[in-house]
Amino acid sequence: MTSIKKSLLLLAITLALCAVSFGSDGAHRTIVHRTVIHRTTIYDGVATDVGSSPIETADAADLWITTADLTRATKFEIKPQGVCRDELCFPIPKDRKDRLVARQGRAVVFNLSEFARMVHQPVAVDQKNSVWFFGARQAAQNDFVQTLQAPNFTLPDLSGKMHSLSDFRGKKVLLITWASW
Question: pLDDT grade, residue 48 (50/70/90)?
């Protein structure tokens, strides 16, 4: 490859890595380098790769995703009634709309972490590995209180045999837990 071709290739790569954008206020902003980071959400116990962020944000704790990724990861959709999944629908308050929904070119993007704050859903974020874990909403967390039954779970004993709490229904059970923190 000739030195001119190499120089043109390096220039093309440099231009691909550099982007110039203009803010809504008309101010000129230069983004020197944008690294494509694949992000993962864990919602209802299912891990979904949601790709890189479709929107630049100052708050790294905000998880902006495309509406297609919203539906894939959570089964929620944006409808005129609000953010809906099956019969469950959360209206989008007017004072929060700009923090929940934005336009990025022709695409509509959604802030899943802001939605979690709105519905009082716990979120744990691992910034280093770009993983967002969304816990159960308060209403779902407290459903078992109405029946006074502990939620079912399955764990191995010391020999590796799996045991479910439901195997002991009707019997007295003593659970001993320990955590290192």
Answer: very high
Place of tokens 């099956």: 86
For the segment 103-115, the average pLDDT, to the nearest whole number, is 89
Alpha helices by DSSP H, listed for 22-142, are 67-74, 97-100, 112-118, 138-141
DSSP alpha helix (H) spans, the chain: 3-17, 67-74, 97-100, 112-118, 138-141, 143-147
- Supply the DSSP string of 133-173, one letter for each residue: EE---HHHHTHHHHHT-PPP-EEE-TTS-EEEGGGGTTS--
Residue extents of the structural domains in the chain:
1-34, 36-138
> What amino acid occupies position 9?
L
Taking the alpha carbons at both ends of the chain, their separation in whole angstroms is 58
Q: State the average pLDDT over residues 33-57.
A: 77
Angle at 92 between CA 80 and CA 139, to 5 degrees: 110
pLDDT at 62: 87
Asked if 18 contacts 31 with a C-beta cutoff of 8 angstroms, the reply is yes
Q: Is 106 left (phi over 0), alpha (psi -120 to 50) or beta?
A: alpha
